[in-house]
Design goal:
The structure holds three protein chains of three kinds. Chain B is an all-alpha fold. Chain B has 14 helices and two strands. The model of chain C has no long low-confidence stretch (mean pLDDT about 80). Classes of the chains: A mainly alpha, B mainly alpha, C alpha/beta.
Chain lengths: ~280, ~280, ~260
């Protein structure tokens, strides 16, 4: 009876109001990107703002040429590498920390509050602090040392909090069963814990890559001589008068859509195969 | 003995994280505190112990107006992200009934975040400018006959860009809290004759508090430390604490920047401590 | 610290003649209420304060002993005038980099602002009218150079000297001149420029053919004359030079008050 009324229940009026609100929100998120999309097709002599000065694909080609200011290729590959390193380190270290936090140990609350502090300390302070530290001890800041550390202070808290959420809901009886069957600690982790928390670790991986890939303020004083992509883009907002930046925005957004479409497509295909097997 | 080895393994497991936090969080913050007492000239920082940096900072009316301005941005952004974020989360949690649709709609909101924040921010400029899309549209529709000037390079533009960038950070934790509300509580409220609004007020809002608190902490701390949005969207006409620090860094006045940083850090910690009294984060995950 | 001079120029106000329907003759016009919400000034304290001083002096608000080295009182008065103007909504934005000034002007957000000569050229190369307006009070001039870092030695030092020699050997000078700057070694630069280019940029002559920007775009059509005229006319009416003042720290703090106001 309850089920029946639920499926038959008419949508309340509030649903339509809220749905309209949600649609407006999505429009708000995408709206300004439309301007970028249009302006990336500016004519060769066009500027950063309206009016359009002709129509061309010039700026997309320009994206792959040597720039007067800015180096997309180098900075992109550095950002990609840095993002991947941050991703791997964050997954491994957060997973280890998550395991550690399942038992109480001395200093656990210190680490926990450090993680919270790391989350709320404004990014520019991390940048300034690490920059000063390296300056004083006369180490050369590099994207793979100081900037890597700066990014980890940003991704660890998220990794740790996600691990908390996972292990809070984790049923320890599976591990006990494995141990009763004579599995070693390592085997228990490898064959029982890892497969169960695997999806969340993928979440941590994606999250930390995205955070690092787009991180700006923490990289500002820690990247050393070579720029990451967000630094390059920031430099270009004040040092470029052409729509090449918009072309970059259009290309990256298009690329994101492509990746997501591919991912969704793969999931759909896998589901169908599974369905056929069953 | 067993507890001894398990303790040792806990320490082993936590040590990489502890080490990174020590080197890249604790020591740098201590460095900032130390340097904030140093002296400087045009080219160098000079180890010393002076209070001049703080004296000037706290004695200057500029500092107070900058803090007020930053707080204004933080409060306005917080109010709007909270109202919008709560409504969106409420819609997704209680009105979208299938998990697939919830995921699809979430994805829809997340895709823009894969484009650089800075590019998304500057995309507002041609939209809101004097000859921008919005003004052209308003003029063509005959709604206004002069372009609206307050749209760009103004407080309005700063808050708009902040809300645009950070609302999703409010949606996610609130949605998370809402999904954990036992649906039978809502039915019970309805059975007891509560209207939709009363249910919202006395059941859903109180039970979403942890999510609201976490989202608020995130949004407020990000806006308090922000400098790019203010710089780009106010056309360089407004100041914020983060911008002040980044300007001082640009002028190589590191000790002055460090003193500002310490004051900012204390301010943010006070705000967060107040918010944490509302919620025990560790329990709520 | 000694620098080898490489580059200098004289700056004035840039305007959009298509959006301004009267003659601009004085620095004081920057704060004319007619341009409310359409003016801009550069937000680099050491240079911005000089532009502000040119404006205040032209308005008759402040008199200066030496604009290149102002007293605290002069600085305070200048900033007070600027803060009043800012509060009245005179400014649309402040710019920090060359390209920001180009974007503000090209988009029409700003119609009058302190501007650098090559920025005016960059706006024009987009097909937008923009004028580097000579003013009756004269120009604000600046210079720059390159110096050697003291830790250099051996091969590095040689490389540095070689770089400076190359820098002054003419190609760079011609490149700078073609953007509207003045190279500090004009004779070598001349060798790398055509006679027509030299005539247009340095001698105030009408261009015989199209004048190209360094990256090869047409910047000026044949027949055009450079705003402000020849080198002698321009540098001959310089009113003040940028310099680091004795009251630099005070000035930067007051400037920050202006920005935060």
């Amino acid at each position: 009876m309850a089920l029946l009324t639920k499926t038959r229940e008419r949508r309340p009026t509030s649903f339509y109001f809220l749905a309209a609100f949600f649609a407006l929100f999505v429009l708000f998120l995408y709206g300004p990107m439309l301007t970028i999309f249009i302006l990336s097709f500016q004519g060769e002599n066009g500027g950063l703002t309206f009016p359009m000065n002709g129509f061309s694909f010039h700026w997309f080609g320009n994206l792959f040429e040597q720039q007067a200011v800015g180096d997309f290729g180098g900075s992109f590959s550095r950002s990609l590498k840095l993002g991947l390193i941050v991703m791997v380190v964050t997954v491994v270290v957060s997973f280890m920390a998550g395991l550690a936090f399942r038992k109480r140990f001395r200093g656990d609350s210190v680490i926990f509050y450090l993680a919270i502090a790391s989350l709320i300390v404004p990014s520019i302070l991390i940048s300034l602090g690490i920059g000063l530290l390296f300056n004083i001890v006369e180490w050369q800041p590099q994207w793979f040392t100081s900037a890597l550390g700066a990014h980890l202070t940003w991704t660890f808290p998220f990794g740790l909090l996600i691990m908390f959420a996972v292990f809070n809901r984790f049923d320890p009886s599976y591990e006990e069963a494995a141990r009763d069957l004579g599995a070693s600690n390592w085997q228990t982790i490898q064959y029982v814990v890892l497969p169960m928390v695997g999806p969340s670790l993928i979440g941590v991986a994606m999250f930390s890559f995205t955070l690092s890939y787009d991180e700006f303020a923490r990289t500002l004083m820690t990247a050393g001589a070579l720029n990451t992509l967000p630094l390059e883009i920031y430099g270009m907002t004040t040092n470029v008068t052409t729509p090449v930046l918009y072309a970059l925005g259009t290309v990256t957004t298009g690329f994101s859509f492509l990746v997501i479409a591919l991912a969704l497509g793969t999931v759909a295909i896998m589901r169908r195969r599974k369905g056929q097997k069953a | 003995m067993a507890s001894d080895t398990s303790k040792r393994s806990s320490y082993f497991l936590i040590s990489p994280m502890a080490l990174i936090f020590a080197v890249f969080l604790v020591i740098p913050l201590l460095t900032i505190v130390v340097v904030s007492f140093w002296d400087y000239d045009e080219y160098r920082i000079l180890p010393d112990f002076i209070l001049e940096n703080y004296k000037y900072l706290l004695g200057s009316s500029v500092t107070w107006s900058i803090y007020l301005n930053t707080l204004k941005y933080a409060v306005l952004t917080w109010v709007f992200t909270l109202l919008i974020g709560f409504t969106v989360a409420y819609f997704l949690a209680f009105h979208v009934r299938s998990l697939t649709w919830q995921i699809v709609l979430f994805m829809l909101c997340t895709i823009p975040f894969w484009t650089s924040n800075i590019i998304r921010m500057i995309s507002w400029i041609p939209f809101l400018g004097r000859n921008g899309l919005l003004n052209s549209a308003l003029i063509n529709l005959g709604i206004v006959d002069q372009p609206l000037e307050f749209l760009l390079f103004s407080d309005f533009a700063v808050v708009l860009a902040d809300v645009h960038l950070y609302t999703l950070f409010m949606v996610v934790p609130i949605f998370n809290s809402m999904m954990r509300i036992d649906r039978s509580l809502i039915e019970a409220a309805r059975d007891a004759g509560a209207s939709g609004f009363e249910t919202l007020k006395s059941v859903i809002v109180p039970l979403s508090k942890p999510g609201i608190a976490i989202g608020s902490i995130f949004v407020i701390t990000v806006v308090m430390g922000d400098f790019i949005t203010v710089r780009l969207m106010s056309g360089g006409q407004s100041a914020s604490v983060g911008l002040q620090i980044s300007n001082e860094i640009g002028l190589l006045q590191y000790p002055a920047a460090a003193a500002s940083a310490v004051v900012l850090l204390i301010t943010v910690l006070l705000i967060v401590t107040a918010l944490l009294r509302l919620v025990d984060i560790r329990k709520e995950l | 610290m000694t620098l080898i001079p490489t580059i200098y120029n004289a700056d004035t106000l840039g305007i959009r003649p298509d959006l301004i329907d009267r003659e601009i003759t004085s620095w004081a016009d920057l704060l004319d209420p007619a341009f409310k919400g359409k003016a801009s000034i550069l937000n680099i304290p050491s240079i911005g304060i000089m532009d502000a001083a040119m404006v205040c002096e032209a308005m008759g608000e402040v008199t200066y002993g030496d604009k290149g080295n102002m007293t605290q009182e002069e600085i305070d008065k200048t900033i007070a005038v600027m803060i009043d103007a800012k509060k009245a909504g005179q400014f649309r934005a402040f710019w920090k980099s060359f390209d920001e000034s180009v974007n503000l002007m090209a988009s029409g957000e700003v119609v009058i602002q302190s501007m650098w000569s090559p920025a005016v050229a960059a706006v024009r190369s987009k097909g937008i009218a923009c004028k580097y307006q000579p003013l009756k009070e004269g120009y604000r001039a600046w210079g720059g150079g390159i110096g050697l870092a003291k830790h250099l030695s051996g091969l590095e030092l040689e490389a540095a000297y070689e770089y400076i020699d190359w820098y002054l050997s003419g190609w760079v000078g011609a490149y700078l001149n073609r953007q509207g700057y003045y190279s500090a070694a004009p004779e070598t630069a001349k060798k790398f420029m055509s006679e027509d280019e030299w005539g247009f940029w340095m001698e105030g002559k009408a261009a015989e053919g199209d004048i190209l920007s360094p990256d090869g775009k047409v910047m000026e059509k044949a027949g055009a004359v450079r705003d402000g005229g020849s080198y002698e006319e321009r540098m001959g009416s310089v009113a003040c030079w940028n310099s680091v003042m004795d009251e630099n720290k005070h000035m930067v703090r007051k400037w920050n008050e202006f920005i935060a106001a």
